Amino acid sequence: GVGGRYSVLSSVGLLSAASMGIPVRELLQGAAETYALISGLRGITRNPAWIAAGLYYLHGLRGRPMDVLMPYVDGLENFVEWFAQLWAESIGKQGKGFTPVRALGAIDQHSQVQLYTEGPDDKLFTILDVRNRRKDIRIPGTGHGALAGLNYMKHKNMSEMITFEARSTAAAIYRSGKPVIWLELPELNAFTLGGLIFFYEYVTALTGYLLSIEPFDQPGVEQGKKYTYGLMGREGFSDHAKEAEGLFADILKNKVSL
After folding, report:
1. Residue 129 DSSP one-character state
2. What is the distance between the alpha carbons of residues 134 and 186, in angstroms, rounded to a whole number?
């Protein structure tokens, strides 16, 4: 099997989505229209999926094997978790692959952007923003003397500030000479999320094929499952239990006491 990473738009994934009140028809429509767009474009330089896969592949070959995905919308936090699984399990094989790095703007920019701008040039960054946010908060002004310096934010919208944060992060990374992909959704809803999910599934498959690996299996994951079944005493997996115990004993031979 290909695991849970490709099951989001399957009947299993859609059942879970429907139970949470997500309009699955809109989710599938977004995925279908994205597929139609991608499959209908001829020429690598006009196809966004091929462009993205090519960027991941070429930057990986040029010493940037770490791929940071940083959306500036809280609703995509779980999407980034899914991307990390998709990216790692699909193309991390045969000594090849690129490492996914999860980040969420604007929270993680304060803890990670220092590394991104002045650390090693071993990452390709994707900053993801949403133009229209449904919920918004207008920032009031203040007459307090000690806080007067914050009045430049008076009457600004919180969504506007988040977009400024996203653009500032992209600009700071770009200024440091690091590569940045800017990706923007018109808004976040079931339709655009379905399209975004399919887009990354497609890009992941293309990147796997560029690396000459099969993106739809997961032998490393399956081996770990077999060891776990064996150690838990599942019938038919006793040989895997012995192998796991022997390998772990080798690890412990080199332990250091603290």
Report:
1. E
2. 11
